[in-house]
User: Which sequence fits this backbone?
C-alpha cells in the first residue's frame, strides 16, 4: 500500500516542491512561513525522528564501558 501511494503522489509532490522552490527563489523558509504549515513540518520531522530513536538508544548502550 505505501508503495502504491508513493507512486501515485510522488510526481505531484515533486512538482509542488519544485514550484515552491521557484516561487521562493530557493529559500526553504517558505515551508515555515505559515503557522499551520510550520506545525505540520515540525510534526512530520518529529515523527520521522521518533522511529529512529530506539536505534540510537541501542547504539548508545553498546558503547558503555563495563566496570570490573
Assistant:
Amino acid at each position: 500500500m505505501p508503495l502504491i501511494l508513493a507512486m501515485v503522489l510522488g510526481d505531484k509532490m515533486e512538482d509542488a516542491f519544485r514550484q515552491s522552490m521557484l516561487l521562493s527563489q530557493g529559500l526553504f523558509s517558505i515551508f515555515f512561513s505559515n503557522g499551520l504549515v510550520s506545525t505540520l513540518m515540525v510534526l512530520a520531522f518529529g515523527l520521522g525522528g521518533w522511529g529512529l530513536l530506539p536505534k540510537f538508544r541501542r547504539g548508545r548502550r553498546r558503547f558503555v564501558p563495563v566496570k570490573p
